[in-house]
Amino acid sequence: MTDLTRNVVHQTPAQDMVAPGLADLPLVTPVGQRNGMRHLAAGVSIITAADGSQRAGLTATAVCSVTTDPPRLVVFVNKNVFANALIQASAALAVNVLAGEQEDVARVFAGMVEGVQGEDRFGTGTWTTLVSGAPILENTLSSFDCRVIRMFDESTHHAFLCEVLAVRERSDGEALVYLNGGFRRIPQ
Known about the structure:
The chain is mainly beta and 188 residues long. The protein has three helices and 13 strands; from the N terminus they run βαβββββαβαββββββ. The radius of gyration is 17 Å and the shape is globular.
């Protein structure tokens, strides 16, 4: 087990870095933020982790490439989901970028299918592993097998900065995106 808590980083800008008056302005409401973000189309991924015999995963759109040299990405995971604890325990995760025909997997891992939770979610799709031991979904557009090198504490979420150990991709298929509260297929 790896303890990522020693790598937790939380920084607040120094007051002299904030433009006069900005710190005192009110924030939009959570509903306003959520409604505005509905218009940002984002690729749909399943984030997975494993520690021993335990596996967990979630549907996510908060994944971003950071650099290609070294190969790094960042993944945001809600602190209250079980996968968050497994990522911290194993210091590894996989990002499975879904193809258009994998909407059923997205719905299962998003908790949209009643009665399917925890390990039962892995009954949808075909799963394997690459290097880290994190579950890799077959037939994705791409899958990134990663080790976590740093965890950032950000309000309700952790941001996991990862180094990519292995990648698997395919060159055909539609992309699955999430836009305005629904899944959409985008041709390549």
